[in-house]
Design goal:
With about 100 residues, the protein is α+β, with helices and mostly antiparallel strands. It has three helices and five strands; from the N terminus they run ββαβααββ. The protein has one domain: Beta-grasp domain (Ubiquitin-like (UB roll)), CATH 3.10.20. The chain has a five-stranded mixed β-sheet with strand order 2-1-5-3-4.
């Protein structure tokens, strides 16, 4: 199982064993990471927005779709490495990725 690190607003970290096939958003919700995920992964909001901590990791991910980019435009605290976690599927290739919950939601 790949390990994913979620960095909370207060700087604390939660490292989880993620199940392949789930979205990173589902993994975060299952592990009580403080994201809202209001649309439950239907790409209709930006409340599962997180920041990929490392540019190299960001570049390893499939690029965001146009629909994801449109939703990201609505996110608070947007950065160059922001992603909607509902659009990232857990695979073994994600082992070690670090994602930060943005200060603003």
């Amino acid at each position: 199982m790949p390990k994913i690190t979620f960095i909370h607003r207060d700087g604390s970290e939660t490292v989880v064993d993620a199940k392949a096939g789930l979205s990173v958003m589902e993994t975060a919700v299952e592990n009580d990471v403080e994201i809202e995920a209001a649309c439950e992964g239907s790409l209709a909001c930006a409340t599962c927005h997180m920041v990929v901590e490392d540019q190299d990791w960001y570049e390893k991910l499939d690029p965001p779709s146009e629909d994801e980019e449109d939703m990201l435009d609505l996110a608070f605290g947007l950065t160059k490495t922001s992603r909607l976690t509902c659009q990232i599927r857990v695979t073994d290739a994600l082992d070690g990725i670090r994602l930060r919950v943005p200060e603003e939601t």
